[in-house]
Amino acid sequence: MNVKTLILLVSLSISGIVSAQSKYIKDANTEYRSGNYFKAAEKCALAYSKIRRNGGAALDAKGDMAYKTAESFRNLEDFKQANEWYQRAILLKYQNKEPLVLLYNADMLRIMGDLKKAAEYYKEYQELVPTDTRAEVGLKSCEIHEDFIDNRTTHTVTNLTQLNKDGYDMSPTFVDKKASVIAFASSREGVVGKDKDKITGDLYMDIFVTEIDKKGNFTQIKPIEGEGINTENNEGTVCIDGRAKTMFFTRCPHMKKQNLG
Asked: What SS3 class is residue 185?
């Protein structure tokens, strides 16, 4: 094998690697920009793992994929995973390109109760972006946390296990004048659609109802009655008019291979 042939083979090999990496990054960015955070977390993490070349451009791309993976988990409210991926982006010095990685990582740490580390990242972000008051608010939240613990109110928060199940439950509201019938959106078993939402990774939501009986107990939860209300799409927040005669609700349609916003 002569030198020219060897150089050509090496060039083709490098070109193939770069092309494959670009495809993974392109796929990841498509899901991320569409707001499909469940799919984006998977795609961005995969793209991150495929970027193996050294050099400034490769490190920037790796930091970008780590940041977008973290952002996807943050939007899914998976704070532990988000924190881990923000840390990877920070190790790659991504804060030089996007300082928000420091602020959001501080938020994740504060939510998880690591107030000392959270304060460190708030201060670091404050040095880079002194005009953003969110760092000051975050620091204040860390400072007064102990006061909240020492001066508890008499309120008691109880998990309504009769209503809360696996999956997403959201937007409960009374839908009758007596305030006894509750409607809410849920992705629990019993929904019409069988596909999974690329944003949440859960089933598409329908509207369910339950009633509070005379003893204060909740009746069996069931899908709301009415033709054309629950569909294979996401049905969500419900509200009614002042006479409790008309119901309004949100619907987020989805179509395969189409970005509907």
From this structure: strand
